[in-house]
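Write out this protein's structure.
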Amino acid sequence: VYYTLLQARELNNVRDVAISRIEQLHPFPWDLVRDHVEKYPNCEFVWAQEEPLNMGSWAHVEPRLRTIFNNTENHKGKAIRYAGRDPSGPVATGNHKQHVFEEWAFTSQALFGEARKPSDIVSGVPKWE
């Protein structure tokens, strides 16, 4: 997801979105994440993952991020928005069109705060107007 977001941010000239990733989930890097989020005092936080909501790292990371935010000056009480696939039994849809639609949806949710249909696809990267 990281590289998908980077490519979409670049192609769409999105200049007000910082993209970070957490490489290690256990042991959780509490101090590193806290110090990193404090660099962005006025931001909205979005967790993006390709896996469905009931899979992937969201359930593990969300309470830890909430704890970190509540122990900072700038982010106390802030919510973390989820951008990813809806809960699902299988990891993948098994349908290429549905897979591509879901990828566009969570990419636009992460970058723009809402699911948008792209106006074009450039080298596999969605382009929005």
